[in-house]
Design goal:
two-stranded antiparallel sheet
Length: 127
């Protein structure tokens, strides 16, 4: 059952795109979100997705005239942390080290970046 809860915390690609609009622009109506999305989506599709995000507790809404204004409840940092945690769990058996080694093996991180990260980790442990 705990794995199910973690899956609910992650955002689908479309949910993430909508959340990015809200994080960047603040509280917005469906009409304001639609033109900021990469794909041309129908008003009703975006409205439905915002309702899903509302049910998931990712956004809250307030009445603004005849429309609802949606604002993010979950921070970008928390959402990215949940996504990374989900990736590490599903793809790397829960091992952050395996993720890092995959990045090294595929040359997505350099020795200099690893050194810089090691310094940040050491500093964070001292606090």
């Amino acid at each position: 059952m705990p794995a199910r809860n973690k899956v609910k915390r992650t955002l689908t690609p479309l949910e993430l795109e909508i959340m990015q609009v809200l994080w960047e622009n603040g509280a917005s109506t469906v009409t304001e979100v639609v033109p900021k999305l990469k794909a041309e989506l129908a008003y009703t599709t975006v409205q439905t997705m915002l309702m899903v995000l509302l049910r998931k507790g990712k956004v809250k809404r307030t009445q603004d005239g005849r429309a609802f204004r949606y604002r993010p409840v979950v921070s970008r940092e928390r959402a990215s942390g949940n996504a990374v945690e989900d990736l590490v769990r599903r793809m790397f058996g829960g091992s952050p080290e395996a993720l890092l080694m995959a990045m090294v093996d595929t040359r997505q991180i350099t020795a200099q970046e690893l050194e810089r990260l090691a310094k940040k980790v050491a500093a964070a442990e001292q606090q």
